[in-house]
Amino acid sequence: MNKEATKSDIKFVKSLKLKKNRVKENKFIVEGLKNVQELLKSKHDVLELYCTKTYTNLFNNYDCKLISPEELSNMGTFNTNNACLAVTKSIEVDPDQFLNERQTIILDGIGDPGNLGTIIRALDWFGFKHLVCSKNCADFRNPKTLAASMGSFTRVSVLYVDLNDYLNNFKGDLYGLDLDGKPLDTFKNSNKCGFILGSESHGISPAIQALLKNRLTIKKYGSAESLNVAMTANILLYQLRSLV
Description:
244 residues; alpha/beta; CATH 3.30.1330.30; 4-stranded mixed beta sheet; 9 helices; 31% helix
């Protein structure tokens, strides 16, 4: 028989909405049926699973604590969540895993969690397994990031670095994506490469710009002022995959 979630359970889950508590506890929450099902299929260590009575039959092989839809929505971040929520432990990322990547996507100051989640989803779609982020990027464990990734966070490893140090020690060619560069569709390079994307509002930071000798741009045909960084990442990944 399934136990019921306690007030203490709910209080702890609520605390994980804040980054400082996710870092302190080394845990984060995953919400919604799709993301939780992806989580359960992954290598993540699921510590707690909460579900409503309607969905218990989907989790017969797991210890699931019962909770009402109202309490579930209240302790999570979704406006409505009538299915489930899980608490999982963060997986430690091994930087050595990134060394053999021929093409590495690097994000500089992407603060919007939705954009980060969409980029993670795109990486997964195109078969990329790793993502490098500056320390001032959004937390990939942010509930909005996880929701936007649609489960892809379980298959893409995210490494947070001091970007100056990382790029100074990068063994390969570096390319920045901005408005003034060579057309992306003419890019051909079989060497190890890193591709840096900045935020739509600020672009690549000046300190990082100073390290770049190569720039690429997505050719503009219309009148839009700029592309959202997640859209840019999708186009870049499509182009890179066509070269493999």
